[in-house]
Each structure stands twice: as structure tokens, then as C-alpha cells.
Amino acid sequence: MNLSDDIVYLKGVGPSKAKILASELDIHTAADLLYYFPFRYIDRSVMSTVKTLTDDNYVVLRGKVNNMQTTATGKHRERLTVDFYDGTGHLQLVWFAGTKWVREKLKPNVEYLVMGKPSVFNGDWQMTHPEIEAYSYVDEGARHRFMPVYNTTEKMKQHGLGTKALARLTETLIANITPVPESLPDSILAKYRLVSLHKALCNIHFPDSQELLDQARLRLKFDELFFMQLDYQYAHSERQQHSHGRVFPTVGNHFNRFYKEKIPFPLTGAQKRVIREIREDMRSGRQMNRLLQGDVGSGKTLVALMCMLLALDNGCQACLMAPTEILASQHYYTFLRMLDGLGISVELLTGSLRTSEKKRIKQQLADGTIQLLIGTHALIEDDVHFHDLGLVVIDEQHRFGVEQRAKLWTKSAIPPHILVMTATPIPRTLAMTVYGDLDCSIIDELPPGRHPVRTLHRTEPNRPLVFHFLKQQIDAGRQIYIVYPLIHESEKMDLKDLEDGLEMVQNYFPRPQYQTSMVHGQLTADEKAFEMDRFKQGKTHIMVATTVIEVGVDVPNATVMVIENAERFGLSQLHQLRGRVGRGAEQSYCILMTKDNLVGSARDRIRTMCSTTDGFQIAEADLRLRGPGDMQGLQQSGMLDLHIASIVDDEPIVRASRDEVHDLLANDPELTQYPVLQHYLAQSKNKMLWGKIS
Ligand code: ADP
Ligand code: MG
Known about the structure:
Layout: H1 14-25, H2 30-34, E1 40-43, E2 59-74, E3 77-85, E4 90-95, H3 99-105, E5 112-116, E6 118-121, E7 124-128, E8 131-134, H4 136-140, E9 146-149, H5 154-158, H6 163-176, H7 186-191, H8 197-203, H9 210-242, H10 253-262, H11 269-282, E10 289-294, H12 300-313, E11 317-321, H13 325-338, E12 346-349, H14 355-366, E13 372-375, E14 389-394, H15 402-407, E15 417-421, H16 428-433, E16 439-443, E17 454-459, H17 463-475, E18 479-483, H18 491-508, E19 516-519, H19 525-536, E20 542-545, E21 558-563, H20 571-578, E22 589-594, H21 600-611, H22 615-626, H23 634-637, H24 651-667, H25 675-683, H26 686-692
Parallel strand pairs: 4-7, 10-15, 10-16, 11-13, 11-14, 12-13, 14-15, 17-22, 18-20, 18-21, 19-20, 21-22
Antiparallel strand pairs: 1-9, 2-3, 2-5, 3-4, 5-8, 6-7
Helix pairs in contact: 8-9, 9-24, 9-26, 10-12, 11-12, 21-22
């Protein structure tokens, strides 16, 4: 059988099973099945007994079931408990879902293998939603020490495609498949002592030893990361060679006058370095694709502004795209203020403008009257045409999807230079992978005179003290944020929480002595702007808000950020929120209010927040705690569909594969010595995407 053959022709499959494999697991060909890896193995040599259970590690037990009991726990809901006995002791198996199917399947006097994590409940061992297989399965596979366990769905099980059946099909496939051609160059195989691809693919399913399994894993992880890097880096080098960018040779009047007359403070060393890097790009003749990383408050906006002035100096327009209207208008007013008197035409384009205004702006963009445009997604609508767009800055990039960025290409005959600014730093491994084809600049220095924000963890009983402290701060002339998480599905209910919070705050801080603002997602853009403005101008002392204020909002006089239900926020969000304070010369505070007795990752997050203010450290911790699938922005990017490798655990392999690809392309940009890799690139679906975007 060949890799590309339809799976329906595999012995034991047939049309109806093929259909299930396709709909449930997206398996269509022999290769798809071969690449459907077990997520776990049963090690036949390590079987546990109930009597010797000690902790909650994953175990495999062998025994019989008895005494099934169903208890209703609600409308259409029930709990199924089953007694399991292995000759040394009893364990209760518990199901809350799929109970009907379990009830039908389990029979007394049959030996089962039960797999899962046991726990102690009311003094007895129990196991919730165990995996369970008839023991004969393991017997059949006696020639393999490790039996593969595959993820399967209820529907598959009902159609005779449980893990046992999948293993059998895979075994048949491996026995009949033509050898899988080698994908990596010999030199790399030798250097990292990698086993052949064919061997790895066989052993990932049926390893006869831990060592063989480890070798198979290493090889397949390397493959996966290597080819991902090849996609990114090839696209990158292609662009460097072939895509022409505008050349911005001039540092002209706009830039120079701003620098001499307007700049509100000396640039930090890091800001200077980054501006130099960007300038180099923009006069190189290649199109810039640069990621600008810097912690919250590191001064990315000023860098963006100065780069935009460079574009203007070279006769082009520039635009800045922000994720929310609040941010866009904030940037707009910052720019107006900083550019005052320089005779530069700056405009703001957002969705909530009047139609006539939009029309005027679009008109003036097209004829080149407007030099600098700030806006939201409204910027990338189809009917927005620039006269000559030279630079696009995307602020807080993660909220913009890939396609949205791609749209920018259509805005100009020669693609504009792109500068992407991230809201929070990105862990190194992620930067190497997800942004593998962007050049990266890092602002690793905060403006002088900043005190790190002091972060405190408090619970409800401390509230009077917390409010007392807030009062002292306000009386000393400072301002306060109090932020509530989005808890409910419905915005109305969240609003209720917010309003309750507001009431509590206003009880403690009575008007007219204390003034309070409230901002949330249900206000119109105008209402939000109005409230933000009052707060900014110091007319209100306390800003009660949902996370709409999360990114970018800049009020230097605000010194305390209180985060309610802080355990409900992710790390990067907490860090973003904390970044709203500590922007002036005064000592600032972030107070994390949580319920008592935090456990698990919530506790880890709060601890991390209290122990560091370094955005890079926080990003690393976030990645470790949540895994890349949950990282902000990555779900929508869809760029990290890793099959077997892990960005968290396999950093050395990420590094090695990146370096190898880099060296290959440096020595042989078209890979003429490597027909297999060339062939891969020709086929790669990612190529188009990455060639065009970012
Ligand atoms: P972020 O990188 O989070 O976008 P901002 O660009 O909003 O940071 O800058 C944060 C604050 O620091 C702003 O109030 C800005 O005016 C100020 N700032 C920026 N650069 C400097 C500098 N070189 N010296 C002093 N303050 C600066
Ligand atoms: Mg910013």
C-alpha cells in the first residue's frame, strides 16, 4: 500500500468505516492513519494493583466490574458508578457523561484494563471517566511491550473503531506499506542521530522498548519543527530576495524637526537602537516585516511615530492600526499633541464616524492630502484607498488576524513596510516559531525614573484596608482603576457585576468629593471616549471598568490598579492591566483581589504576578501554565497546529531545527542539492500564506 492510497482500501476498513474515519478524525489516506499517533501507551510490564495505589499518578489496573448503579443528578443527567475489583482491593469507577454507552458495554465476569488517575473520595479509591478496555486486547498484542492508546470519539466506538480497532488497522497498515521515503538530509540525520522516518513512524505506534519510543518521538518532533521552520524561513528568504520594498533613503524635515523641537523626552538607548534597526530595513530596498517587542510602558508608540515620520519624509503616507476605538483615538490625540505645529495632516478613521466624515477622509486619503492615518479595522475596509501607503504600524498585534494583515497588501502597488508591535512580550520559543519569518526588534529598557509597580495579593476580608489605602492615594492627588473581569456569557450580567461594584465603590467614595467613571463594552464609542477623557483630565478619581481598558490606555497620574476576581484573568491580561499604572514618577500599586484558598494554576498565576514585573518572564510562565494552544492570539492564528512536538517542552529541538534550516538556506537558497525539500516546498500549503503575509 502507498502513503497516498485511500484508506478505504486498507484491509479491515471498507466504505462505512472509511466514512467514520474521515468525518471523525479527518483521516482519508494511508498517510493520515500512519500519522495519527497514540496519545499514550500501556506498558504491559508495569501494571498496578488497587492495594498498592499511592497517589494520583496515571495507572493501569486489571480486574472485573460489578454492581452498576445509576443516580439521577438532574434533568437528563445521571451519574454511573461501577465497582471494580482486581483481587487486591476495590475501586469505584464513575461516569457523568456517556453513561448509556458504558452501561451497555460493561459486562460482569470479563477482565478489563482500567486506565486513569485514581483519587481518594470519602476515604475510598475512585476513578472518574477511566479509559477501559477488555483485557484480551493486551493479550493479543503480547508481542509488543507498549500497547498504543488512541484518542477516539463516542461515535467511533459505536462503529467498532475504538482504540483497539485503530491499533489493529495501523498494524495492518504498517505490515503492508511501502517504505516511507526519507525526508531529511543525511547530514542532519547523522548529526542528531535520528532514526529513519520509516522506522520512527512504525515505532511511534508499536515500540518494543522505551528507547525505541524515545527515538521515534525525537525523530518525528524534529521533522515537524524542521518543516515548519522550512516554510517560514523559505518564505522569508524568498521575500528578501524577490520582493521589492520602497526605499526610504531620506531623513528629512519631519523627522528632524520633531527630533529637535518636539520630542518630549530623550529616547532611551533601546528606543534609539530599535529606530536604527527599522531605518536600516526601510532603506535596504527590501520590504520590512518587523516585529517590535517591548514590555508594557517601554515606549513603543514614540518609536512608531518616529518611523512614520520617516515614511512621510520620503513622500509616502503612513498608517497606524489599533485594536479598539479607545486606543485608536488615544493614539490620535497623542499624535496631534506631539506633532502640533509641524504642519502634518493627521486623521482618525474609525467605524463610528459619521458617513460624511468617512467619505471626506477616504477622499483625502486617496488624493494624498492626509499624510498620517490612525484607525481601527475600518482602515482595512475595501473602499479605503491610499494615495501612496509606505508604512503600516499594527499596534497590539494579537487582535488582528492573519487575513486582516494580508488585506493591507492590496492597499498599495508596492507592498508597504510593516511594523507589528506586540502588546506583551512573546516567549522566545514562540517567537522562533509563530513569528519565525519576521525580523525582531526588542525594547529591553524602560524609560528612566520608573519604579517597578508593587503587586499585592488581597482577599475580601482585606477590603476595608484596601479601600482605605485607595482613599489615601486619591487624597494625595492620584487616580485609581478598578477592573472587573468578563465572567458571564451575557454582557448584561457582566454589566450587573460592574454596576454592583460601582455602587460599592460609590458608597465608600461618596460624591461630590469623589468622582467615578465607568467604562464597559456596551457604551458607544462616544460615551467611552467621554468617560476616558474625564478620567484622563483628572475630573474623575476612580475608573471602574471591564477589560476594555486593557491595552494601551495611558494615564500617568493613575497609580493604583485594583483587579477584582483576579483569579479569573490570564497572566498576560493581568500583566497588561498592571501596565496601565507605573507610567508616571510616583510609586504605583497593583492589587489583586481574589477569593480565599486559591488552588492550581490560579494560585500560580497570582504568585507569578506578585514575584515579577518582567514581561518576558511572565510570558514564559504563561506559556508553561497554559500551553501554546491557549496563548492569546494563537487560537485565531491557527499557525501552531503542532501534532507531536511541544513548544513548551521541546525548546532545544525548536532551536536545532531552526538553526539547521537557517544553515541550509544560507548555503543553498533554492535548495538545489535537496530535491526532497524542494518537492516539499512546492507542495506546502503554508507556502502561499507565508509568502504573502507578515
Ligand atoms: P507601550 O510600549 O506600552 O506602548 P507607550 O508608548 O504607551 O508604551 O509609552 C508609555 C509611557 O512612557 C508614555 O507615557 C510615554 O509618553 C512615555 N515614554 C515613552 N518613551 C519615553 C522616554 N524615552 N522617556 C520617558 N518617557 C517615555
Ligand atoms: Mg502601546
